[in-house]
Amino acid sequence: MLRVDVREKSFAARVVLADIRFELPPGEILALAGPSGCGKSTLLRLIAGLDRGFIGRIAGPARVAMAFQEPRLLPWRSVRDNLLLAGAPPAVAAEMLGELGLAEAAEVPADRLSLGMARRVALARALAVAPDLLLLDEPFVSLDAAGAARARALLLAAWRARPCAVLLVTHDLTEAAALADRILVLAGSPAGIAEQIVVPEAIRRHGGEAAARFAMSLRA
Ligand code: ADP
Ligand code: MG
To answer: Which one of 9, 15, 36, 42 would you pick to mutate in the ligand 1 pocket, going by the greatest count of ligand atoms within 8 A of its CB?
Structure first.
């Protein structure tokens, strides 16, 4: 169980996050939505333990993996090596590359990949270490609609094979509704949780159309 209690996070004199409290049980997908610049990545970095400069408490599972907004692969290494060097056992690496549609690309150096493929490699690398908590920061941003839909379907297939807790940052409510059980909407300055939306069972992970309609109804 991830337990987040961030009382205050500031940069210099500016308070960016205040009073953010939530829990994420094992096996749940939670989306963190909110406008660009509101503090989503900052919160994810606190949860990942990359930034300890805040007031509050965060406790969670020991095995955490993160896929950043930029794929951050080792550019001159092959796709397979990127997974192995992150600590993935060879058999698991091969399985993940298959699951994310990357088997053919295993020997390709990371700097030769399209953005869509690089994003999927980053996802495969995060999943391949069998995390209990997977942190994803806008993992499908700037992919075209078809590429994003494919990557989302591949993520769900991999997650179904081994469900872990997922915290997915996105500014796209349709994407949040397509993937998550629950959506926390961050808003304000400093940002706090403005709203919690439970995605109805009938919409949850049932594909883009239903999610798009649900997201539209939220905006109305
Ligand atoms: P989001 O991911 O929601 O787009 P961020 O968490 O990246 O937003 O940023 C939230 C705010 O904090 C922004 O105003 C950003 O400029 C500021 N910020 C982020 N990182 C730093 C930093 N290292 N130093 C100073 N300000 C920062
Ligand atoms: Mg961000």
So the answer is: 42
In this structure, what token pair is assigned to residue 203? 């919409």
Give the Cα separation of 149 and 165 in Å (integer): 21
Nearest CA to ligand 1 atom 20: 42
Task: Say which CATH number the domain at 198 has.
Answer: 3.40.50.300
Q: What is the pLDDT of residues 68-113, one digit of tens each?
A: 878 899 999 999 999 999 999 999 999 889 888 899 999 999 999 9
HSE of 76, CA atoms in CB hemisphere, 13 A: 0
Which domain range does residue 97 map to?
73-130
- Domains in the chain: how many in total? 2
- Tell me, what's the pLDDT at 158? 86
- Check whether residue 136 and residue 215 sit in a common domain: yes
Claim to verify: residue 138 and residue 113 sit in the same structural domain:
no
pLDDT tens for 131-184 read 999 999 998 887 788 888 888 888 898 899 889 999 999 988 988 999 999 999
- C-alpha distances (whole Å) from 88 to each of 46, 95, 114, 183 are 24, 11, 23, 30
Same structural domain, 142 and 97: no
16 close to ligand 1 (CB < 6 Angstrom) = yes
- Which pLDDT belongs to residue 220? 65
